[in-house]
Amino acid sequence: MRLEIDQTFGQLALEQRPAQLEIEQPKADFEIEQSSSQIEINSEPVEIDIDYTAPQEDMDIYSPRAFGEKIAQEGLNAGMEGTAKYARQGYELAQIEDGGDALVRQAVENSGINDEKEVVLSPKRPIDINVRPDSQEINVQPAQFNLKTRPNWPRIDATYPRVDIYLAQQPELNIRVVDLRV
To answer: What is the tens place of the pLDDT at every residue in 94-119?
Structure first.
């Protein structure tokens, strides 16, 4: 007897998918609120005092009040000096019998020939200038910041690895009798 054997081997198939991972990280959300800063400046003006009194007096220029005081003082001095002068001259004339030239000397003295007067064209003392600088007060209120943040979690898309094993071809075994003769 003769047998014919046909055999087909089974085949296994293997399909493999690797793991996949996608990560997306969105930026954090934040909000900033800011108030404006405040600046306040308080200042007082510069003060300048200029006093011309001393240089004007050096040039015989007076305010009405000062001129009145000066004339009053000069009048008092002139009255006292004049009284003393007239008393002295009277005493000299009373002594005329002692000789001398009292009349001639008194005539020259009373004529003002030897009087000297000083004329001033520029002051001897400078102008008095006083400066009080300004004062400033600066108040600053800095800006206020308010920061609000909210983190965002990452978005993850993942697929696990997969291996599929299946039978791609069925095994087969065929045995046939071809000849029955022995």
So the answer is: 787 777 787 777 787 777 776 777 76
List, for residues 65-75, the tens digit of each pLDDT value.
888 888 899 89
Residue pointed to by tokens 């000299």: 92
Q: How far apart are CA 40 and CA 139, in angstroms?
A: 5
Count of CB atoms situated within 10 Å of the CB of 86: 10
Instruction: Say if CB 167 and CB 8 are below 8 A apart.
Output: no
Q: Which two tokens stand for residue 149?
A: 């943040």
Estimate to the nearest angstrom the gap between the alpha carbon of 32 and the chain centroid. Answer: 26
Task: Specify the DSSP class assigned to residue 108.
Answer: H
Which token pair is 164? 């599929």
Residue 170: name the closest of 6, 5, 9 by CA.
9
- DSSP three-state, residue 18: coil
Domain ranges of the chain: 1-38+141-182, 56-118
Contact assessment for residue 8 and residue 131, using Cβ atoms and an 8 Å cutoff: no
Contact 34, 140 (CB under 8 A): no
Question: The pTM is what?
Answer: 0.35
